[in-house]
Design a protein that fits this description.
The protein has helices at residues 15-26, 39-48, 54-60, 71-77, 83-89, 101-106, 137-142, 170-175, 198-205, 210-235, 257-280; strands at residues 3-7, 33-37, 110-117, 123-126, 152-154, 157-161, 180-184, 239-242. The protein has 282 residues and is α/β, with parallel strands linked by helices.
């Protein structure tokens, strides 16, 4: 039986999924396919490399630095989050907290990283074949939020956050041959997503990237539809949804160390439910 895990990201709320994945590493839980969107792509990379606690450090320590995100980055580069700092300076082999690239690549599980092509709004599903030692641009492409960052250009193609085109890629996991899937949400599963700032962000890219702007406007409905589908799969025993009951005020860009720690601990605790589900064979 092939088991997949899907981490939808969610900026700083991604620390919840980091807690779940750290619980999995502590208990030796193995997945056959790992799908990540935006911050979720970095989460699953550290899971595949077996670096328990690494994601937590990124959320609770490095994200608090002005080099990581802030108005100074925006004024200097046009991007609020410095993706090169996160996935380059910190993550490269000579960096402060490098990704164990060899361990990630030798892990038999497959890796799928979702990004959105800015020019046509279609998803691009990157794999291990698209990543090299100290070249983690696929994670930068997947995590490039419109309006927060300028599009990330990879091999001449501009990309935005994977959540625009496939915010909850459970169907991708099933299409990869998974018999059952664990879905990590970073918002309460029982609360429908609302548009929030999506119309504003869409308006900021409408002129240059109209297809991506349309995807941004549809993101809320696509997310809610996918979560509804996930609940149907869960009723069939083919999928488990894990989501925080409370985000403790943490949102996409909010940096509050105490709240982040509480959300991480909630993920760790909910990881035990995942273990019980796997052991039950459901």
């Amino acid at each position: 039986m092939r088991t997949g895990i899907v981490d939808v990201g969610g900026g700083m709320r991604g620390i919840y999924a980091a807690g779940v994945l750290d619980c999995c590493m502590a208990r030796g839980v193995r997945f056959d396919c790992c799908v990540g969107v935006s911050a979720g792509s970095a989460n699953v990379a550290s899971y595949l490399s077996g670096q328990r606690g690494r994601n937590r450090r990124y959320y609770e320590e490095y994200a608090l630095r002005r080099q990581y995100m802030g108005k100074s980055n925006l004024l200097r580069t046009g991007s609020y989050i410095n993706l090169e700092y996160v996935y380059g300076t910190l993550s490269n082999s000579g960096g402060e907290d490098p990704l164990d690239f060899r361990a990630m690549m030798e892990n038999p599980a497959s890796l799928i990283v979702v990004a959105t092509r800015a020019e046509d709004g279609q998803p691009r599903y990157f794999t291990k074949a698209d990543v090299r030692q100290d070249d983690y641009r696929i994670f930068m492409a997947s995590s490039c939020v419109p309006g927060v960052n300028r599009p990330f250009v990879l091999d001449g193609v501009p990309y935005f956050d994977g959540a625009l085109s496939d915010p909850v890629p459970i169907e991708k996991a099933f299409s990869e041959g998974c018999d059952r899937v664990v879905l990590l949400l970073t918002k309460p599963a029982g609360v429908p997503r609302v548009p929030g700032k999506d119309p504003l962000l869409a308006s900021m890219i409408q002129r240059r990237y109209p297809a991506a702007a349309r995807r941004m406007l549809l993101r809320t409905q696509r997310y809610n539809d996918a979560v509804a589908a996930a609940k149907r799969y869960q009723a069939q025993g083919r999928l488990l949804i894990l989501s925080p009951a409370d985000t403790f005020g943490v949102d996409t860009l909010k940096r509050d160390r105490d709240a982040l720690e509480r959300l991480y601990r909630a993920g760790e605790k909910d990881g035990e439910a995942l273990l019980r589900w796997l052991e039950g064979g459901h």
